[in-house]
Amino acid sequence: MGLVRRLFTCYTKPRRVTSLTGKATKSVAYAITALFAFFALFPFVWLVITSLKPAMEAFSIPPLWLFVPTLENYQTIMSSEWFGGFVSSFANSVIIASISTVLSIGVGILAAYSFARFKTGGSGLPYFILSTRMFPQVAVIIPVYLLFYYLKLVDTHIAVGLSHTLFNLPFSVWMLVGFLGSIPIEIEEAAMIDGCSRLGAFRRTVLPLAVPGIVVTAIFCFSFSWNEFLYALVLTGANTRTLPVMAISFVEPRGIVFGPLSATGVLTTLPSLVFAYLLRRHLVKGLTLGAVKQ
Amino acid sequence: MKQGENLFIGAGNYARLVTDAAFHESLWTSLLYTAVVVFIEFTLGLLIAELLTTQVGRGFRNAVNLLIIVPVMMTPVVVALMWKILFMHPSFGLFNYGLSLLGLQGQAWLGNYATAMPSVILVDIWEWSPFVVLVLVSSMSGLPTEQFEASRVDGASGWQIFRYISLPLLKPAILVVLLIRIMDAFRVFDTIFMMTKGGPGSSTEVLSILIYLQAFPFFRMGYASAMSYVMMFIIDGISTALIYLLYKTAKGD
To answer: Which residues from chain A sit within 8 angstroms of residue B131, using beta carbons?
Structure first.
């Protein structure tokens, strides 16, 4: 009976009705998701627009909708005496993020290799390492600060780079274990039969194959360090101020700084957006520490 | 720091925590913030992800997926500045301009007891619900299609398919999302510090801010450390519970 009815309803084409309601649902779905995308994107677009307004009009209310775009705000922040000095902060950010990335990858790849091939520490140790990525940074900021204070390293690039390695190294180990684990072990075994030592086999066979994974992990590490604020706030001084710390000078603005503030915001966040675009295929994996694959 | 004045006070700092009203209030603020933010982000994110996976075209989905990366990867400090200055500024912000168009009185969004907390919550939702969407979309599109086709043939409604097929299959991804969001929301620092520094009063003073303020301007390192430990234990408890659930699901229940 059911079958007959199904055949019958097929024959009388009820599909038109369902496809009509389907169409209505679909347009609602398009509208909602488009609205969400607009909500997610508009503030950044507004930041970019404000950064391109002439300095005197950047903060005008009602907002200026039509104007001739200008780069004068970018020129203002490039002149080094502006606030904390954009150019030197940019340089500090690059140095610190590089230190942290190199350390995290250099140490992380060896640890990851050991986890992937020898199951070092059973299943407990990798999870312990992961937990160090997860705990609240403010909870360790005091010992970290005191450590560098007694070592007289506060306000040095190396101190901030090392502190960023605290969260980047566990991340890098965790990501690289996933990448190294997918490289077949037979290749190394073949290399070792041909006379390579364990480390030689690692260097000659595993490392070249792991390059894509290493690049992805490195870009993530660089981004995380680039965006980090708390360690940088506590450990940097006049010589090492990173971009996020420098941005504090804008917190209580006078009207005139709206343009430079927006320009600083755009340039601070631009590298990590470019990286995100490069990483888009691995983004979910990186942001969930390898737990969800794309 | 003054050297040579370090006294061993045993559990003194912890004893103080038990009776410290500021700590209790801050703990409550953190828990409230975490609960509200994660609940809204997760509900909104799940809805959008479901719509993106089942209702819209592939090209549109990919475009939305690409655009909503922006809030997730933006520098948090810039996120905070952008909202605070361009949108919530009492005299030059877009929010008050919008209200004035409607003939309404503007607000000092981050300066009022009533609006400061909702404002920082809004910013968190803006920043992180796209993350929920990204993760859920990518795990939804990886689901096997057989069960969906079978249930459709059997005449299941869209809601039934979502409730009895998608959700159970998505459970691991959902737990991961909740785990990460709960931990990150509970330890939030950058955005709130930039926007309100915990104020006005202590209305947005989450634990991270309280600990930071105790440790750095006041140099009460011992007391701040004690609070840090309590914070770690709480987060450890929550995450262990979630990881246990995740592990149980991964084994297949």
So the answer is: 287
Say if A128 is an interface residue toward chain B (CB within 8 Å).
no
Closest residue on chain B to A64 (Cα): B94
Task: State which of A29, A49, A74 marks the end of a domain.
Answer: A74
Tell me the pLDDT of chain B (253 aa) as tens digits: 444 456 677 777 787 777 888 888 999 999 999 999 999 999 999 999 989 988 888 899 989 999 999 999 999 999 999 999 888 888 788 888 888 888 888 888 888 888 999 999 999 999 999 999 999 998 888 788 788 888 888 888 878 888 888 888 888 889 889 988 998 999 999 999 999 988 788 899 999 999 999 888 777 788 888 888 888 888 888 888 887 887 776 665 4
Q: Cβ contact (<8 Å) for A284 and B135? A: yes
Whole-prediction pTM:
0.86
Is residue A292 assigned to a domain?
no
Could you report the predicted ipTM of this complex, rounded to two decimals? 0.87
Q: How far is A265 from chain B (nearest CA, A)?
A: 5
Task: Among A74, A102, A133, give the residue marking a domain's end.
Answer: A74
Q: What is the CATH number of the domain that holds B183?
A: 1.10.3720.10
∠ CA A190-A195-A201 to the nearest 5 degrees? 60
User: How many folded domains does chain A comprise?
Assistant: 2
Residues A172-186, mean pLDDT to the nearest whole number: 88
Put simply, the answer to whether A36 touches B133 (Cβ < 8 Å) is yes
Q: Where are the alpha helices (DSSP H) in chain A?
A: 2-11, 15-51, 72-78, 86-118, 124-134, 137-150, 157-181, 185-193, 198-201, 207-227, 230-235, 243-246, 258-278, 283-287
Torsion of CA A126, A199, A279, A50, to 10 degrees: 90
Write out the residue range of the structural domain in which residue A154 sits.
81-287
Q: B245 in contact with A at a CB cutoff of 8 Å?
A: no
Same domain as A137, residue A47 = no
Specify the residue for token string 């983004």: A283
Measured between CB atoms, which of A227, A284, A293 is closest to B76?
A227
Asked whether residue A293 is domain-assigned, the answer is: no
pLDDT confidence bin for A106, thresholds 50/70/90: very high
Q: How many domains does chain B have?
A: 1
Q: Which of B178, B148, B164, B142 is nearest to B46 (CA)?
A: B178
CA angle B72, B78, B84 (to 5 degrees): 110
Domain encompassing residue B136: 24-204
Judged by DSSP in three states, B20 sits in: coil
255-274 of A, contacting B, C-beta below 8 A: 255, 258, 261-262, 265, 268-269, 272-273
In a domain, B123, yes or no: yes
Distance CA B29, CA B116 (A): 12
In-domain check, residue B219 = no
Tell me which chain B residues have a C-beta less than 8 angstroms from the C-beta of A289.
Answer: 180
**Interface test mutation site (partner B, options A131, A282, A288, A293, max chain B beta carbons within 10 A):** A288
Give B134's contacts in chain A (Cβ within 8 Å): 283-284, 287
